[in-house]
């Protein structure tokens, strides 16, 4: 099946088996190995990417569903010369140990901060009519789909808070 997906700003035409997940298309067909295959069941968040600005688990989505979509992986977030504010904050706050979950954590955090900017409520949001306050419990709730086996959660929350202040 012929599918064209714009990945990190570049249109990529792919001939894929219709059963190919977006994760496998990125890793196996495009060589973008920053996105990790963790559980392959949508439970860990290691495969999180942004599709048209919204965070998704790429292991649960077929590549063919994204014909014409804009996909951003960790490779498209920043460069070594110019890191994204979240990448800088993860380094500054020491928000990773093994680093396996970090690409998914960063992509999820980018999507989460966009949701907060649009004032999307979460389970933690007390007042649905007020502007969402980016508290530690709010961040923890919104990032709960991304697991860190090394338990760097306090540093991840601190990095997200720090980056959100810089990006504001």
From TrEMBL:
For this protein, the record's PANTHER family field holds:
OXIDOREDUCTASE, IRON-SULPHUR BINDING SUBUNIT-RELATED-RELATED (PTHR45331)
Organism of derivation: Phenylobacterium hankyongense
What is this protein's name?
A: (2Fe-2S)-binding protein
Database matches in InterPro entries: 2Fe-2S-bd, 2Fe-2S-bd_dom_sf, 2Fe-2S_ferredoxin-like_sf, 2Fe-2S_ferredoxin-type, 2Fe2S_fd_BS, Aldehyde_Oxdr_Iron-Sulfur, Beta-grasp_dom_sf
Keyword terms: 2Fe-2S, Iron, Iron-sulfur, Metal-binding, Oxidoreductase
- Enumerate the spans annotated as 2Fe-2S ferredoxin-type domain: 1-77
PROSITE patterns of this UniProt entry?
2FE2S_FER_1 (PS00197), 2FE2S_FER_2 (PS51085)
Q: Does the keyword Iron apply?
A: yes
GO MF term list? 2 iron, 2 sulfur cluster binding; metal ion binding; oxidoreductase activity, acting on the aldehyde or oxo group of donors
């Amino acid at each position: 099946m012929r599918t064209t997906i714009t990945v990190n700003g570049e249109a990529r035409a792919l001939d894929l088996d219709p059963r190919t997940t977006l994760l496998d298309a990125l890793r196996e067909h495009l060589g973008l190995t920053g996105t990790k295959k963790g559980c392959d069941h949508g439970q860990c968040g290691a495969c999180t990417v942004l599709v048209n600005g919204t965070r998704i688990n790429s292991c649960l989505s077929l590549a063919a569903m994204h014909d014409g979509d804009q996909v951003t992986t960790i490779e498209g977030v920043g460069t070594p010369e110019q890191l994204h504010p979240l990448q800088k904050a993860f380094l500054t706050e020491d928000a990773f140990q093994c680093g396996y979950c970090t690409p998914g954590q960063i992509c999820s955090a980018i999507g989460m901060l966009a949701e907060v900017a649009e004032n999307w409520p979460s389970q933690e949001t007390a007042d649905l009519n007020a502007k969402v306050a980016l508290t530690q419990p709010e961040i923890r709730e919104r990032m709960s789909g991304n697991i860190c086996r090394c338990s760097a959660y306090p540093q991840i929350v601190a990095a997200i808070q720090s980056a959100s202040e810089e990006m504001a």
